[in-house]
Amino acid sequence: MPPSSALASKPAYRAVYSGFSLSTASTAYPVPVIQTIQSHGSVEIMRGCPNGCRFCHAGYYYRPQRIKSIASIEAEVKALVEEGGYREITLSSLSSGDYPDIA
Prior knowledge:
The protein is about 20% helix and about 10% strand. The chain has helices spanning about 5-10, 55-60, 70-80; strands at about 40-45, 45, 65, 90. Strands 1-4 form a two-stranded parallel sheet. Strands 2-3 form a two-stranded antiparallel sheet.
């Protein structure tokens, strides 16, 4: 293994998944026959956070902010309800209140 000083001289590149807004999650999750505590589907609506609060490590770690389109969210929700059998859906993100026009 090379010494740490040799590793530090090489530039570091950050990989960011830029196709997030176009991606859809799998909706074919098995729904158990028994009642579970959290029996709801989950759709990720956004990654990252636009605020950059100094106390929040996750806000910096998951940059840049990437927003999923409303059409993509609707398609995932529809698939979870119709194909997955879920009656409740959770819209999740690091900072859901910052999703444009959420209210």
